[in-house]
Amino acid sequence: MLVLKFGGTSVGNAQAFAQVADIIQAARQRDPNTVVVTSAMAGVTNQLIAAAQAAAKGDTDTYQRVREELLAKHQMVVGQLITDGAERAAVGQLLEERLQGFERLCRAIAILGELTARGLDVVAGMGERLAAPLLAAVLRARGLAAEAVDAAELIVTDDNFGAADPIMDASRQKTRARLLPMLEQGILPVCTGYVGATADGIPTTLGRGGSDYSAAILGACLDADEVQIWTDVDGILTADPRVVPQARTLPELSYGEAAELAYFGAKVLHPKTILPAIEQGIPLRVLNTFNPTHPGTRVVKDARPTDGTVKAISAIKGLCMVAVEGRGMIGVPGIAARTFAAVARQKVNVLMISQASSEQSICFVIPQSDRAKVIPALEAEFQTELTRRLIDRVTALEDIVIVAVVGFGMRGTPGIAAKVFGALGDARINVIAVAQGSSEANISLVVAQRDSDEAVRRIHAAFQLDRLPDPAVAATAS
Ligand code: ADP
Ligand code: ASP
Ligand code: MG
Predict the structure, then answer these.
(1) In sequence order, what are the residues at sequence separation of 6 or more whose Cβ sits closer than 8 angstroms to the Cβ of residue 300?
(2) Ligand 2 site, CB within 6 A
(3) Residue partners of 353: CB distance under 8 A and separation at least 6
(4) Distance CA 365, CA 320 (A)
(5) Counting atoms of ligand 1 from 1, which one is nearest the CA of 236?
(6) Percent of the chain with pLDDT over 90
(7) Of the candidates 152, 190, 150, which has an alpha carbon nearest to the alpha carbon of residue 6?
(8) Engineering a disulfide at 449: which of 73, 191, 399, 407 sits with its beta carbon 3.0 to 4.6 angstroms away?
């Protein structure tokens, strides 16, 4: 069984839809048990969220405009790819109804003057609820028996709105009960990415970019042979090609390496995508919708070793580094534990920790958007120590990034860190903090956001990652 996921650009316009339909048809010839997962059309989720946020501020124009724009955008695909009159009318009506639902919701948000996380998830997930029936209709127009399925019927999640996590046992049961009979009848399920629902049926989303995660969850629930992530680049590259134009496709990565890259900002995979794949040992493949013959990247349990030690570099932006400092901290037990307990109570994710051996400071990196919660929480926690001057200050350094240098081959290879620092030193880029994960598959550096792109380019060049042979060329040669 195959699970194929298509990202926003892959369903960005009528031409892309046609391309996706070709890929699905070809996959289905290889394996009739194919399940499709689709994202919203490119840009739609952003528009939906912006409209809901504007509505909460009393703006009643934006959502009406967005409703019209989204109707036109989806109708354009209908107009170009669906010729049958009855099918056109049916899809058109469904799109209209869903968008009317969106308008009603936004009106309610405007009247209340408030947007809850729960309400936002209903609106944010609507892009997928437009795209899936549209793609199913496009496939039917090609003679395929395809049917849209709302993943709220498949993926059961907790109620952490905006970044919900699946409850795997319940999801497995529901997914199999709903999709396996469809497959047995020769029907191709086209599922919405990004969304799920709580056990009580309240709609949730898995977090921005979450359709990759949806595909991996469904793949695990169905014991799929492979999960294919179809996107707009030739697989996972040695760096973001928007930052390093010379970046090359990596033919193979281990789950651990891909997880590190995704966690540290490689947008090509949602950071949680690897988890369900690891649990079931399902290989992931990242492929290019617009270059479908390229072999892309395989993400597997044990990747074959490559010549290079460092495989890829990623960077995660929009962070801030918090420091709890003071000479009086030395020898006072429990400061670190209390620091992280206070941060955890705010439900804030710590991306990196570094503590100097002198114990005079504890530094850690969090998303900049959480700064306003974390600093007051720490000041409250250490009120007594601050008054007694055991702790001098709690500070936040803004506009920083973590650059992650990733590759399992780094393990036990001396000189990697020296080479990284050398490359940055030559460019006069200041390294603010460093951490090496216990897996030794990753060295993480904190640098100023303004230095981020140059740091990635310099490290990429230092390890000559642009010299990697292209897997597409290697495949034709062998
Ligand atoms: P989709 O809409 O298909 O989910 P995304 O925009 O979420 O696509 O992810 C694909 C993008 O990820 C690419 O266009 C690329 O700019 C970015 N990216 C960042 N780091 C990497 C990397 N190491 N390899 C490939 N793409 C990357
Ligand atoms: N449409 C959602 C987003 O833009 C999910 C996804 O594209 O993966 O975040
Ligand atoms: Mg994505």
Answers:
(1) 252, 253, 254, 255, 283, 284
(2) 7-8, 39-40, 45, 127, 193-194, 208-211
(3) 362, 363, 364, 365, 435
(4) 6
(5) 24
(6) 86
(7) 190
(8) 399
Q: Report whether 42 contacts 74 (CB < 8 A).
A: no
Amino acid at 355: Q
| Residues 282, 274: Cα–Cα separation, whole Å | 9
* Mean predicted confidence (pLDDT) in 186-210: 98
Q: Are 77 and 134 in contact (CB under 8 A)?
A: yes
Q: What are phi and psi of 417, to 5 degrees?
A: -60, -40
pLDDT tens for 145-156 read: 999 999 999 999
What's residue 210's pLDDT?
98
From the CA of 181, how far away is ligand 2's center (Å)? Answer: 28
**Ligand 3 centroid distance, CA of 6 (Å):** 9
Alpha-helical (H) ranges within 400-469 are: 416-426, 452-462
Contact residues of ligand 1, CB 6 A cut-off: 7-10, 39, 209, 231-233, 236-237, 239-242, 261, 266-268, 312, 314
Would you mind telling me the total number of residues written for the chain in this entry?
A: 478
- Average predicted confidence (pLDDT) for the chain: 94
What does DSSP assign to residue 114? -
Strands (E), 225-264: 226-231, 252-254
Residue 166 is classified by DSSP as: B
Chain segment 235-269, per-residue pLDDT in tens: 999 999 999 999 999 999 999 999 999 999 999 99
pTM here is 0.94
Q: Whose CA is nearest to atom 1 of ligand 1?
A: 7
Which DSSP string do the residues of 46-98 spell out, in sequence order? HHHHHHHHHHHTT--SHHHHHHHHHHHHHHHHHHHH---HHHHHHHHHHHHHH
